[in-house]
Amino acid sequence: xxxxxxxxxxxxxxxGVSLMVxxxxxxxxxxxxxxxxxxxxFVYALPAAGYEVVGKAVTAGHLIKLSVDEVSSVxxxxxxxxxxxxxxxxxxxxxxxxxxxxxxxxxKVLAFRLKEQGDTLMAKVLRQDSVPVYFYxxxxxxxxxxxxxxxxxxxxxxRGLLYDKIRxxxxxxxxxxxxxxxxxFDAVIIDPADLSEVLIRFP
Length: 203
Description:
Elements: H1 3-23, E1 31-33, E2 35-36, E3 39-43, E4 45-47, E5 51-56, H2 60-68, H3 74-90, E6 99-103, E7 108-114, E8 122-125, E9 127-128, E10 131-135, E11 137-139, E12 144-149, H4 155-158, H5 162-178, E13 187-190, E14 197-201
Parallel strand pairs: 3-6, 10-13
Antiparallel strand pairs: 1-8, 1-11, 2-3, 4-8, 5-7, 6-7, 9-10, 12-14, 13-14
């Protein structure tokens, strides 16, 4: 077997191993969500225990008002959203609930109630482009921080909604990983205060 053929076989083997590594799904851990105004908030997450949706936490009109507000911070908007949901509960416009699920992609905010006794803060994390995203939540268990990044999203996303910003950020971070600018990571923790990313890896 000549040297050229051996070299080609080695390259093929290494390329195949690289593809296998890239194809492996990113690890995720259960999440523990935060309480806003005393209410468990699930963003990029769903309750770990069985639950049922009892109604819309806020009206479409309220969501529109929040979406066109370019002055308030993410945290301020979130607090206002939860307060609006609590006001609807007090007025009997939505049944009593255990927490709120915010679906940024579909622009839905749902009130839910657990079907059985359980920890209302425990959650299953959701993914954006294969990456587990911890937003208003943190992983349960051990993990290692491999890098931190300032918020980095496209000009188009800057003019868009929160979901557009997060989707753009994750896309850019994946590209940085592909180009070797950041280490391999399993998941990201996004800080609502400034949308900075903490890249983490699980054992």
